[in-house]
Amino acid sequence: MQLRETSINGFMVDPICSIEIAPKKTAKDYILIAYYEADKVPMSEVKNIETKFHIFNDNDWSDRYDTKNIVIMK
Q1: Phi/psi-derived region of residue 37, left when phi > 0, alpha when psi is between -120 and 50, beta in every other case
Q2: H helix and E strand count, the chain
Q3: Distance (Å, rounded) from C-alpha 10 to C-alpha 53?
Q4: Distance of CA 34 to the CA centre of its chain
Q5: 3-state class of 12 per DSSP?
Q6: Which band of pLDDT confidence, cut at 50, 70 and 90, is reported for residue 57?
Q7: Would you say 50 and 69 are in contact if contact means Cβ atoms under 8 Å apart?
Q8: What is the pLDDT of residue 33?
Q9: What global pTM score does this model have?
């Protein structure tokens, strides 16, 4: 699973997040936003984060699904 179309306060960022999840399992991971992107949107002023999850089968990349937009508001 990865993230797609991610923005902070409306500013598009390219986070690093790649989580491997086996069928019927759960996982916890983190989202890394590079400092040069974070500097453009001060973290002390985060009002919302928007993103989509891109879920795919990494064996053959054939099964893919993108969630609807997810909004995390302060």
Answers
A1: alpha
A2: 1, 5
A3: 17
A4: 13
A5: strand
A6: confident
A7: yes
A8: 79
A9: 0.71
